[in-house]
Design brief:
Structural class of chain B: alpha/beta
Distance between the termini of chain A: 52 Å
CATH topology of chain A: MetI-like fold
Number of strands of chain B: 10
Strand content of chain B: 25-35%
Structural class of chain A: mainly alpha
Shape of chain B: globular
Largest interface: A-B, 24 and 31 residues
Strand content of chain A: under 5%
Oligomer: heterodimer
Order of helices and strands of chain A: HHHHHHHHHHH
CATH superfamily of chain A: MetI-like
Largest sheet of chain A: none
Largest sheet of chain B: 6 strands, mixed
Helix content of chain B: 25-40%
Distance between the termini of chain B: 32 Å
CATH architecture of chain A: Orthogonal Bundle
Strand order of the largest sheet of chain B: 6-7-8-3-9-10
Order of helices and strands of chain B: EEEHEEHEHHHEHEHEEHH
Number of domains of chain A: 1
Radius of gyration of chain A: 22 Å
Helix content of chain A: over 70%
CATH class of chain A: Mainly Alpha
Shape of chain A: flat
Number of helices of chain B: 9
Chain lengths: 243, 249
């Protein structure tokens, strides 16, 4: 008879291939959805700068639709309704489609705030040099805007890692579904869910570290490189303790 | 320096209104090749707006702008940006691209607009940095440079497009007093080398030294203008004399 909590069983789950694969699925679904969302966000945020009512109307309609309905509904919709129109995607395709479209709505706002944060004088300077609008956006505004939006994008990725648990409802074998299915065979919910939790924590922790590195690399490029590379590498600011 | 008679840029009866507000009310101005024109006047007189109209950053409400013998007012966006390549502009707030170091700030437009080879453009950037007396700042980012240094990089950035004309919009107004001189020196060197310039400034010492002609703008019209030596003689309209007195005080 097993006790309430079996460390041995938990460790065996923790190092099982099944859970590792499920964690990989969680990572790539999240990453793919985030990238789809970023691409949509970037295009739509830049599109909002176009002085056309039709374009702006379409963008606002999209934002209204995807921010106004639950992502779970969008997910189930993609999985169950699209086939009625003979659009049959594999479950993970529906997952990335729904999560990506949903993410795109939020990314549009993030990218837009980044673009707005680049002062109008920078555009004027680019135009004065003979840049066309598209070139100004591509080479002057976006490179600065992307730096500004790195922290919020990190937050979105963190959220996405957890949000991706929703795709278990359409049968994608990610972490939560794996834990659930494993437990349904022996009712060891404590061990399986703990292992899933450990995986989630590990992923979000690694993500935070990566984010600190990226932000540091960006600020180092702007701070004096030669002097900063040595001692300052381990300063509190560089370790993310001071903002 | 002997100005040729051909006008490089000519504005005829330039009107500019924002909403119902008339900022420029029929300004005529002509700059010849190799000439240095200084524009002065109280704030709100339309000096900056006039500069922005001349390089088509602001569309004019009516009038005409002729650059290198061609009418440029009312050009479409694409042609307007082609014209702007030939007119350099320097801003009060520098507006260096914050994500690029000095060298790349200068080279960017050559690479992206004129499609130069990057190595060639950077070579040119380093040459221009020497010209504005900043030979060792190529790798520095804008926030690592003083205001005077940033403004000199901005001048080099404008020069990189090999413009026929330079417009300076209060280039030293945002600077600490001790760095004003280094920027004005560069501008004067360029003018002495024959760079056609229109300068909006409150630096009367620069106007005396470098300007061929001075134009006094007030309330959107040219209130007074003349060759530099005449302009600073005692026989100026009272309005101008009062303005000059305030500037000197």
């Amino acid at each position: 008879m097993l006790s309430i909590f079996s460390p041995h069983l938990m460790l065996s789950y923790l190092f099982s291939l099944n859970f590792a694969y499920a964690a990989l699925t969680t990572i790539w679904i999240s990453l793919a959805s985030l990238l789809v969302g970023m691409l949509i966000g970037l295009l739509l945020a830049a599109g909002q700068e176009i002085p056309s009512r039709a374009v702006r109307g379409l963008i606002i309609g999209y934002l209204w639709l995807f921010r106004g309905t639950p992502v779970l509904l969008q997910l189930v919709f993609a999985f169950n309704v699209l086939p009625l129109f003979h659009i049959v995607l594999p479950a993970y395709g529906c997952a990335v489609l729904a999560l990506g479209l949903n993410e795109g709505a939020y990314m549009t706002e993030i990218m837009r705030s980044g673009i707005r944060a680049v002062g109008p004088g920078q555009r004027t300077a680019a135009r004065a040099l003979g840049f066309e609008d598209r070139q100004t956006m591509l080479w002057v505004v976006l490179p600065q805007a992307l730096r500004i939006v790195i922290p919020p994008i990190g937050n979105q990725f963190n959220g996405m890692l957890k949000l991706s648990a929703l795709v278990s409802v359409i049968g994608v074998q990610e972490l939560l579904l794996m834990a659930d299915q494993t437990a349904s065979m022996n009712f060891r919910f404590l061990e399986t869910l703990t292992v899933a939790g450990i995986y989630y924590l590990a992923m979000t922790t690694i993500l935070m570290v990566i984010q600190v590195f990226i932000e540091r690399a960006c600020s180092r490029r702007r701070g004096r490189s030669a002097k900063a590379s040595g001692l300052k590498l381990f300063s509190p600011a560089n370790l993310g303790m001071v903002r | 320096m002997t100005p040729k008679s051909q006008g490089l840029l000519e504005g005829i009866a330039i009107w500019k209104s924002y909403g119902g507000d008339d900022v420029l009310k029929g300004v005529d101005l002509k700059v010849h090749e190799g000439e240095c024109l200084v524009l002065i006047g109280p704030s709100g007189s339309g000096k900056s707006t006039l500069l922005k109209c001349l390089n088509l950053l602001e569309p004019i409400s009516s009038g005409s702008i002729v650059f290198q013998g061609k009418e440029i007012a009312g050009l479409r966006r694409h042609e307007a940006s082609t014209v702007r390549r030939h007119i350099g502009m320097v801003f009060q707030s520098f507006e260096l691209f914050q994500h690029l170091n000095a060298e790349d700030n200068i080279a960017l437009a050559r690479i992206k607009v004129l499609k130069d080879e990057p190595a060639q453009a950077r070579e040119m950037a380093r040459h221009l940095l020497r010209k504005v007396h900043l030979p060792d700042k190529a790798e520095f980012y804008p926030d690592e440079l003083s205001g005077g240094q940033q403004q000199r990089v901005a001048i080099a950035r404008a020069l990189a497009m090999q413009p026929a004309l330079m417009l300076y919009d209060e280039p030293t107004s945002a600077l600490d007093p001790e760095t004003v001189g280094e920027v004005l020196d560069v501008m004067q060197e360029l003018a002495d080398d024959g760079m056609t310039s229109i300068v909006v400034t409150h630096e009367m010492s620069f106007a005396r030294r470098a300007a061929d002609r001075v134009i006094f703008l007030d309330g959107g019209t040219i209130a007074h203008s003349g060759a530099t030596e005449d302009f600073f003689s005692d026989e100026v309209p009272e309005r101008v004399a009062r303005f000059l007195g305030r500037i000197r005080a």
